Amino acid sequence: MAEGDKLEVREITRIERIGAHSHIRGLGLDDVLEARNISQGMVGQKDARKAAGIIVQMVREGKIAGRCVLIAGEPSTGKTAIAVGMAQALGLETPFTSMSGSEIYSLEMSKTEALSQALRKSIGVRIKEETEIIEGEVVEIQIDRPTTGTGQKVGKVTLKTTEMETNYDLGNKIIECFMNAKIQAGDIITIDKASGKVNKLGRSFTRARDYDATGVQTRFVQCPEGELQKRKEVVHTVTLHEIDVINSRTHGFLALFSGDTGEIKQEVRDQINNKVAEWREEGKAEINPGVLFIDEAHMLDVECFSYLNRALESDMAPVVIMATNRGITRIRGTDYKSPHGIPIDLLDRMIIIRTIPYTEKEFKEILKIRCEEEDCQMSSDGLTVLTRIATETSLRYAIQLITTANLLARRRRATEVTIEDVKKVYTLFLDESRSSRILKEYQDEYLFNEGGSIGGSNTKVTPMEVGDN
Ligand SMILES: Nc1ncnc2c1ncn2[C@@H]1O[C@H](COP(=O)(O)OP(=O)(O)O)[C@@H](O)[C@H]1O
Ligand SMILES: [Mg+2]
């Protein structure tokens, strides 16, 4: 791009999509980890939320490796919502990897490789690096352009602190940086000696009245004190998985963007573990263990469970949180039954958080929050009916009806969703139990029917009670 060309940047409005858990902003706990009634989008389920808060605290302290937590409870009791709340409470600094048990059955890599990558994505490494920088106020810049217009530029800059002043010769690359950052006399800048990166910290206070043209955004800073050359510590946070990918010769760092990382050799991982251990000893790196959340954990099979069992013993292991809605059921890959479909030896390591069904009042509050989240003006009798539907069918189904009823109301150009809208969508869209009832009544007319072998019926059964098979 030629110099002086104006780069046009159009304003981008980001569209935040509304997801199943987008109303959850944290666990809604107070200072002593007591769950507030309704807070940060969370309603009820207080014991489970408090327990989750204790786990969050444990992760934050980062001292304990390889603990395993199971969140168990009926469908729609907020297991996934609590995990989302935990991730929010931990913040962006702590790695939180979320996956579903079924994700390991991908064709691209073995199940244990997928788990291994997920575990390593959940371990952050803070790498401390000392760099030498030059920090000072620009007294004067002089750049000589070659008369031909092309070729190397040469230049000089004079920088000062409150105590000293020095001249530096500028190479072509740094001159480019100076020009891009529009550095001029009176700016306080830093130059990274290793990379040549130039950073503008602001304008010197002494120049505050030089120009009328300084905009309101101009930041004024003091002229630095002491030596011009300083040592500065910078911290990069990466995950073990990112280090693996970058150092795996077959893939290279571009794989980080495509996500197409394939399998990583054990040798590479061993080398990296050794290197990180070395850095830790030298005080160059700290590890920041996070959380691996495996939803629908009953989808894992016995190989995976055994792999996790072993992996949890490593001192670099994250805290693993699993969620399941299964009761006593078959462990995948075996003929044995076990609570939650998880082998006893792994269960033995776990602490279990139980989620319990909601009361009608809690359903109402959750639905109210969802209406707000979806920008839906629900009439009060509409909300009462929805609550009724949630207690009699399922919370998820009732949440779906908000969206559909809202659309109907908007089509009518109505500002409020009425009880009629809710009734209409209730008849247009079936819930699971009505659908199974109809299937039973009309089974002869469907293709591939196997006469009554369908699990569902009009009596409501929850997986917690019956298990898989
Ligand atoms: N305590 C709660 N507070 C607010 N929203 C909740 C709560 N529990 C569940 N939800 C919402 O209800 C829906 C179903 O809950 P979900 O967490 O998916 O259930 P589960 O994972 O236990 O099957 C989701 O949209 C979830 O965000
Ligand atoms: Mg879930």
From TrEMBL:
Residues 65-357 form the AAA+ ATPase domain. GO terms for molecular function: ATP binding; DNA helicase activity; hydrolase activity; transcription coregulator activity. Keywords: ATP-binding, Chromatin regulator, DNA damage, DNA repair, Helicase, Hydrolase, Nucleotide-binding, Nucleus, Repressor, Transcription, Transcription regulation. Its main location: nucleus. GO terms for cellular component: histone acetyltransferase complex; nucleus. It catalyses: ATP + H2O = ADP + phosphate + H(+). The keyword Disulfide bond does not apply. It is an enzyme of class 3 (hydrolase). InterPro entries: AAA+_ATPase, P-loop_NTPase, RuvB-like, RuvB-like_C, RuvBL1/2_DNA/RNA_bd_dom, TIP49_P-loop. It comes from the Eukaryota. The keyword Hydrolase applies. Its EC number is 3.6.4.12. PANTHER family: RUVB-RELATED REPTIN AND PONTIN. Acts as a transcriptional coactivator in Wg signaling. Belongs to the RuvB family. This is RuvB-like helicase. It comes from Lutzomyia longipalpis (Sand fly).
